[in-house]
Amino acid sequence: MEKDKKQLSHLEETIKKNEQKYEELKAEHQKALECIQTATEGETLEKYLKNEAYAFILAEGLLDKFLEFREPFHRTKAQGALFNLVAEAQIGGLWIDL
């Protein structure tokens, strides 16, 4: 009888520990889901903004200028300096801050 009580007590302790671990993992999982949701929303917005910028380039007839800009030897000094500053900053997140 005493042995059964000890085993039962041990099982109850184990269950309690497992329930606590489950709650911790559940909370971590929820945080991860929220992080993924935020990232997905940010990527969706960034994709929209890039498409909007591309549509503007096309609508204004600036595609040729943009393609020239992509070649370093076609950039003006000001364009090159600005491009280098932006590239070196390595800013994460949205490229257009709203």
Q: What's the assembly state of these chains?
A: single chain
For the termini, the CA-CA separation is: 70 Å
Ranges where pLDDT stays below 50 over 5 or more residues in a row are none
Radius of gyration: 28 Å
Overall, the morphology is: rod-shaped
Can you give the helix content as a percent range?
over 70%
Strand content: under 5%
Q: Major sheet, described briefly?
A: none
State the order of secondary-structure elements, H for helix, E for strand: HHH
Number of strands: 0
Rounded mean pLDDT is 86
Briefly note the structural class of the backbone: mainly alpha
Helix count equals 3
Give the number of domains: 1
Condensed summary:
This protein has helices spanning 2-59, 63-70, 77-89. The chain has 98 residues and is mainly alpha-helical. The protein has one domain (2-89).
